[in-house]
Specification:
323 residues, D-Maltodextrin-Binding Protein, domain 2, 2 domains, six-stranded mixed sheet, 12 helices, globular
Length: 323
């Protein structure tokens, strides 16, 4: 009788524990962190905070941004690559992410294998800027002056691998000209140098250039997209302005560590689709001069791999070798 009672008790105990032993915690049930591998205040940081706020509302959990700048975005990206693949640590990367494999001989992670795409967030383009007092009044004049004075025209950037640097190098290659590169610590320093005529031109993102353009402090010669930027309707494309076929676009996007369960990736992707197609976000992004950009996870992963190949060729043409 005692053995029977004991057996019943053990069976009851096992049954009571079974749901807890095999039930999975619902996702998310705690705060989510978005690592931004660049400093606060830039466009990537701003986008991460906008998206994070919307995700928090939709998922019912706090979503906060953690800035981890350094080494061309590598430090913050590496932190996420080595984080637990549980959906609670994500990274908002910027255009240099698919460029780094060609800039550095050795990375602490594999760009195409150690991350899973959730979705791009915005497309990123460039606007070619000069000082209002510059003698280069158009793209055609700039190319003509550069051909007549090889190496004398210089351009600023925030460093090798930045989208502005790549845009300038592609411009030089397609126009068959030679320009001198002058790197700056950040966008404010480069813009100040441009306004002071210390440099001749600078490829910037519209988000950080629109106010200066509209205020007359900078002159826009062209945008890097196939069609005109709605925020700068009077500025021609660089193709229209004199360099046919020129186009430079990239993206900011949300990634998770490799190994993150597909149901988490798909859930976040679905929420991002709803966020990026909402009128509120479209309006906010339009004010920043950027456009929402959504893809499925598989399509985003394919885009990353394609851009790694694309930028490798651009750097090769510019004779820039990995460090």
């Amino acid at each position: 009788m005692k053995r029977f009672i004991l057996a019943i008790g053990l069976l009851a105990g096992l049954c009571s524990q079974t749901p807890f032993a095999y039930a999975e915690d619902p996702y998310p049930n705690r705060a989510i962190k978005i690592v931004v591998p660049t400093g606060a205040g830039g466009i990537t940081d701003i986008l991460a905070r906008i998206v994070g706020q919307q995700l928090s509302i939709r998922l019912g959990q706090p979503v906060y941004v953690d800035n981890k700048p350094g080494a061309s975005g590598i430090l913050g990206s590496d932190l996420v690559a080595k984080s637990a693949p549980d959906g609670y640590t994500l990274v908002m990367v910027f255009p240099v992410h698919p460029v780094n494999p060609s800039l550095f001989a050795k990375l602490p992670y594999d760009t195409s294998k150690d991350f899973l795409g959730i979705s791009p967030v915005t497309s990123v383009s460039l606007v070619l800027l000069t000082s209002p007092t510059s003698e280069n009044k158009s793209v055609k004049e700039l190319i003509q002056n550069a051909r007549q004075n090889p190496g004398k025209i210089n351009f600023g950037s925030v460093g090798n691998g930045s989208l502005g640097f790549l845009g300038a190098e592609l411009f030089s290659s397609m126009a068959n000209i030679k320009m001198t590169h002058i790197p700056y610590k950040g966008v404010p320093q480069a813009l100040t140098a441009l306004m002071g005529n210390e440099i001749d031109l600078y490829f910037d993102t519209p988000a950080t250039a629109i106010d200066q353009i509209k205020g007359g402090k900078l002159k826009a010669l062209g945008v890097s997209t196939k069609t005109r930027n709605p925020s700068l309707p009077d500025v021609p494309t660089i193709t229209e302005a004199g360099l046919p076929g020129y186009e430079v676009t990239s993206w900011n996007g949300l990634l998770a560590p490799a190994g993150t369960p597909s149901k988490i990736i798909n859930l976040l992707n679905k929420e991002m689709q709803l966020i990026l197609t909402s009128p509120e976000i479209k309006s906010k992004f339009s004010q920043l001069g950027v456009e929402p950009f959504y893809l499925t996870p598989n399509a985003f992963d394919e885009l990353v791999r394609a851009d790694i190949v694309r930028w490798k060729q651009v750097l090769k043409n510019a004779n820039i070798k990995p460090e």
